Amino acid sequence: MKTKYIFVISILCSVLCLTGCKDYLTEIEPGTTLLEDYYTSTAAAKENLVGCYVPLMWEYNTTYCSEWFIGDIASDDALKGGGSTSDMADAYDFENWRTESSNSLLHDFYLAQYQGIARCNLSLHYIAGMEVGVDEEFTQAMKNRLLGEAYYLRAYYYFRLVRVFAGVPLVTNVVDNMADWQQPRASVDEIYTQILSDLELANKYLWEKSKYPAAEMGRATKGAAEAMLLKVNVYMASPYWQKQGVKKTPAACYADAKAWGDSIITSGEYSLCTNYEDNFTIAGENGQESVFEIQYAEVTWGDYTWDYDYKGFGRTAGSFTQILTRSRSSKIGGGWGFNHPTQNLYDEFEAGDVRRDVAILVPADSLIETPAVEYYLGNKMLNNKYAMYRDSTYSGAGYGQWGIHASRGPLNNRQIRYADVLLLYAEACLGLGDAGTAKTYIDQVRSRAGLGACAAATDATLRHERRCELAMEGHRWFDLVRWEGVAGTGLKAHMDAYKTGETTDAQSHMREFIEGKHEIFPIPYEERLLNPKMDQNPGY
Predict the structure, then answer these.
(1) How many whole angstroms separate alpha carbon 124 and alpha carbon 154?
(2) What is the value of pTM for the model shown?
(3) Distance between CA 419 and CA 276 in Å, rounded?
(4) Judging by DSSP bridges, how do beta strands 290-294 and 78-81 pair with one another?
(5) Burial of 436: CB neighbours in 10 Å, binned 0-12, 13-18, 19+
(6) Which residue ranges form the domains of the chain, and what is each CATH number?
(7) 294-335 per-position pLDDT tens digit
(8) Which helix (H) or strand (E) holds 413?
(9) Largest CA distance in the chain
(10) CA-CA distance, 114 to 108, in Å (whole number)?
(11) What are phi and psi of 18, to 5 degrees?
């Protein structure tokens, strides 16, 4: 039984807002609760930790702000989609290199990560102060585990921020006074160093996945920390992030990445699903290939009824991704049609690769009810991974629905799969000159996809496999940036080549990709108004 994040909004708001008098001459008002008085049991500490996970779920505030709007749509893997080019204008700007600091999607994404960081800082401060033995369950091992979860999540939120905005303000304490509200941006190296520090502590304290009770599946584990330590080190070794000021050498990054990869691979905690498609089903959630995923629950009511005003930050347990990415045709989902896979991505797959049809749905013309809104700039292909359930309990005309009017789905978002770990490990091995070991793990992934062994493990081979294995899961843009393109000629050359292969309609909307600017996004305008100490990224 998987864990779904429970609503702790009222509890968290109370905890975050409670105040107590610090002056010994002033009596505390009757009924006032001090922050430290809340943290008196294991149950309270666990509830507080649940609140640290919640911002991972958030996909809507003033607009829809799922990370895949950047990871897929900014890349060569997807076009925005929707009913027209003006539908979700913020995503249109990502697609066409037009993004400005006023982009509301970026602002909501930024806010969500810092809300998560603030909650982690609160948990780290007060759980650290709890005495072992406050109740029977609060052992040293339990205390360490809860602290490890908070360290992991704080690192995760900062990783999300740094790869979108580069350096950002680094806040590791509870902000409880005006003087701490405005802080300058930390350097890229400082952010990555903090991420590594938090993840190393998380790895020290967290439990292995197999030690968690079934009811707590979905919480951060030792394996999740090791996977992130592998991933972050591979990122830090890359050409782009080295140029942005990472001080740790590529050789040291790759060596550490391989060591963390060795640890998770030899743990025996994870394995590839026999059937690739099982990774994207309700039944397959938190399964053998799952290293870390965002937990969602089914919401049965629609957004166009009494609860329309309650779907923003913190008000939903369901995911908007399903309705956002489904076909606009009622015959195959009745969704909103965002995140169209490109022909460029479709053509990347080799003949016989089972992953293509799991990732990409090419609807028959007979299923398209209104071509004017279902085709987007000449493209009718759809993201199939998170749009359509394949489970019998959610089946309807072959494409499961939980309710045609409900916009919040129960399908978890797989953030780290074991296949991702194996390919990152292979990449670290290539960075260390060990092509033989890299080939072993690339071939494991290829075999599950129904393909034969690769001729040789090269950078090109590795990058091809990552694109096909992780297609439409929000990874592509961040991979392209760190690799600076895939042909060794820079990201601009790669994106220019992609542009020329798109439809004439799509090309007509795209501006020129500017190297040194468009790899990262602008700091939101509203945040710089509130915090003038932050400078802006180059070119914005």
Answers:
(1) 10
(2) 0.92
(3) 10
(4) unpaired
(5) exposed
(6) 9-75+99-268+521-530 (1.25.40.390), 308-411 (no CATH), 417-507 (no CATH)
(7) 999 876 655 444 444 455 787 778 889 988 999 999 888 788
(8) strand 413-417
(9) 78
(10) 10
(11) -65, 140
